[in-house]
Design a protein that fits this description.
CATH class: Alpha Beta
Domain N-acetyltransferase: 1-153
Number of helices: 4
Shape: globular
Order of helices and strands: EHHEEEHEH
CATH topology: Aminopeptidase
Strand order of the largest sheet: 1-2-3-4-5
Oligomer: single chain
Number of strands: 5
Organism: Clostridium thailandense
Strand content: 25-35%
GO molecular function: acyltransferase activity, transferring groups other than amino-acyl groups
Protein name: GNAT family N-acetyltransferase
CATH superfamily: Gcn5-related N-acetyltransferase (GNAT)
Radius of gyration: 16 Å
Length: 153
């Protein structure tokens, strides 16, 4: 396994992983535009795991200074490992490396938002020493603001 910072060439593979995580096909043109913008921004870092020349894991995070901490915080935005490659320690290693990257960037802590329906993912984060101290609230600004929590909608 090779763990490295993603490149422009990884966009399609990361797109596939994130569509799999979300259980829906995202618009590739919009995804690519955002990915290309983030990859050149020092406040973002996308870590990938590569095996035999194929990207099998992606962890995308953002670094920001937050007033309510008066410190730098890292936030995991997306984290996906190919279904066939789960339970092999890849996620654990990627999470560990992301924590070190965040520390090296001067961050006080690392955070992640995770859909309430992703129970297995919650267990993973708790095994890795994370705590559920926050609530996250959402409101749709386009379309119907339905109170339904669904994956892949």
């Amino acid at each position: 396994m090779v763990y490295r910072k993603s490149t422009l060439d990884d966009c399609r593979a990361i797109y596939s992983l994130i569509c799999g995580m979300e259980n829906k096909k995202l618009p590739y043109d919009k995804f690519e535009k955002i990915y290309y913008k983030q990859i050149s921004d020092c406040y973002y870092y996308c870590l990938v795991c590569e095996q035999d020349g194929m990207v099998i894991g992606a962890l995308n995070m953002r670094f920001e200074e937050q007033l309510h901490h008066a410190e730098g915080i890292a936030e995991i935005l997306e984290f996906a490992v190919a279904t066939a490659c789960r339970n092999m320690g890849i996620g654990k290693e990627m999470f560990s490396q992301s924590c070190q990257i965040a520390k090296d960037k001067g961050c006080l802590q690392i955070e992640v938002d995770c859909n309430q329906l992703r129970k297995d993912t919650h267990r993973f984060y708790m095994r890795e020493g994370m705590h559920n101290f926050h609530f996250k609230f959402s409101k749709q600004l386009i379309g119907d603001n339905v109170p339904e929590n669904a994956l892949g909608r």
